UniProtKB/TrEMBL annotation:
<protein>
    <submittedName>
        <fullName>Polyvinylalcohol dehydrogenase</fullName>
    </submittedName>
</protein>
<dbReference type="Pfam" id="PF14361">
    <property type="entry name" value="RsbRD_N"/>
</dbReference>
<dbReference type="InterPro" id="IPR051932">
    <property type="entry name" value="Bact_StressResp_Reg"/>
</dbReference>
<dbReference type="InterPro" id="IPR002645">
    <property type="entry name" value="STAS_dom"/>
</dbReference>
<dbReference type="InterPro" id="IPR025751">
    <property type="entry name" value="RsbRD_N_dom"/>
</dbReference>
<dbReference type="InterPro" id="IPR036513">
    <property type="entry name" value="STAS_dom_sf"/>
</dbReference>
<keyword id="KW-0597">Phosphoprotein</keyword>
<dbReference type="Pfam" id="PF01740">
    <property type="entry name" value="STAS"/>
</dbReference>
<feature type="domain" description="STAS">
    <location>
        <begin position="158"/>
        <end position="269"/>
    </location>
</feature>
Amino acid sequence: MPLSPDEASRFAVLLESNAEPLAARWSELAGAGLRGRLSGAELLRQTRDLRSAFQQALSGGAADVNDEAAAELRAQLSELSSNRARQGFSATETAISVFALKEATLEVLGDADDAATLRDYVAFSAFVDRAALFTFDSYVRVREALISDQAEQLLELSTPVVKLWEGVVAVPLVGTLDSARAQVVMERLLQTLVDTGSPYAIIDITGVPAVDTQVAQHILKTVVAARLMGADCIISGIRPQIAQTIVALGIEFGDIATKASLADALRYVLGKTGKRPVR
């Protein structure tokens, strides 16, 4: 049930008249669930800012967290969620920090037992609940974005393109090659071919545990893309088990050169260019 204008006004006055003791008690209650992982000074600063934002929203007649008058409150809650997500706190710990305002406010009200005060508190409690849920949702969005960024960084780290020789680059693949990773491999290889002007690229699959039809298609697409850039590709790391699987699946690599090891592939390329590797 949304707060009425009178209820919002009364709690705005309460938050203002008890500003410091309320913020201090709120900080104490919120800190109990964080097990000392946030300094007391930082936690007190956060509760002071949030108390001020709650007061501003209620003074403006906000009946719900999504009202225009609660814009600053939403901004503060979003900042809290973002900081806590990056600091490694859980969504529950973050939301509980907001829920603690209810207990702190109830202690300020004391032993009030008249019906009007209790109705006011129930309405205010519901307002805080919605604020905590907003915080929870904001946390989840930030956390998902962080996980997505980390996954993208891991993809880039797991697909290095290295220069083996003048005019020869290699992509040593390790692990499963799915569609997302195959796209990263293709983009990084093509960009390296442009940057170095290399006419040869070796795709080494020694670290790929298994090659099925999907993995083979990803590799073939990368080879075709490299050829369009004017570079020839050699596939190395064809172990006996992988060779048997490729034959059993009926996968055709056509005129693409394949070698058992990265060293064999490099020797092959140097032979094509008329150069000899240093022994």
